[in-house]
Amino acid sequence: MPINISNDLPARQVLEDEGVVVIREKDAVRQDIRPLHIALLNLMPEKIKTETQLARVLGATPLQVELVLLTTASYQGKSTPQSHMRAFYRTWDDVRKQKFDGLIITGAPVEQMPFEEVLYWRELTEILDWAANHVFSTFSLCWGAQAALYHWYGVPKHALGGKMFGVYPHRVTKRSSPLLVGMNDVVSVPVSRHTEVRREDVLDHPDLRILMDSEEAGVCLVDDRTRFRFFNFNHLEYDAGTLRDEYMRDLRAGRRIDLPRYYFPDDDPSNDPVNHWRSSAHLLFANWINAVYQATPFDRSDIGHIRPIWERTTFTAPCAPAPTTKPKPITSPHRDGDTG
Fold it and tell me: Model pTM?
């Protein structure tokens, strides 16, 4: 099944031109199917680019996804037209009484600031606390992943000596994770950050596991499988030219920036970069959507009350037919324009 987004959202035409099946709202309501309700808390300045990138990978699954775009009420950026924000975005206050199968939290251009100094930090912590009982599975990205780890588990972020920038090889370390089913042993992942979460800090917490990491770029993907939480510090959702755009932007601004590693052919910025992570991005998000679909309560009002144990043996492949019965539940215990 395709993704259900607003008929007038700019991402719709982009995705349709790429061959991604996008369902129209009037057709979605006629289908006798329980769609997955996924909220996207978009903290990035260029929201249209980010929402398009994530809608692309969410829409390439066999399940119907209804995407709800969220923004903060305590901070409003200037890089996205307010007409777009008014037309397509809601604040947390607008949806706080609802429950969602999934919540994606993006990065933000604030990673070099202490968490508590971010203008919307208090609102974000309230959203994270709300998600514990109103969202079945969270998937946070880059700074959003660092923020969630810090708030929920006290895991700190650490400044790097320079920007980690490029497309680095990462190894899969926990193949038993449902997110990594079918993934290659080594995966190329775009990285763009000034800070990191360290292995020892993650492994000190008994609920956390490292699913993917890199000798050069460090920890990439972490989960808390009993709470259905995933933390990706890098950017598989990036387009082929995203790192190039960041590199050229920093050059124009006079910032000190090294050439992104393993990115431009022959390390020549005049050569168009080749996207060799696209299939991994689609597989990662398809695995997440598939796993959430198979484990989330059929009645969304049960989210926060029923939480099945997430074991790989309970899942079918992403392209397999949807299960005809609900799984038996088991209760278990700002700088605009920068990367995030």
Answer: 0.83
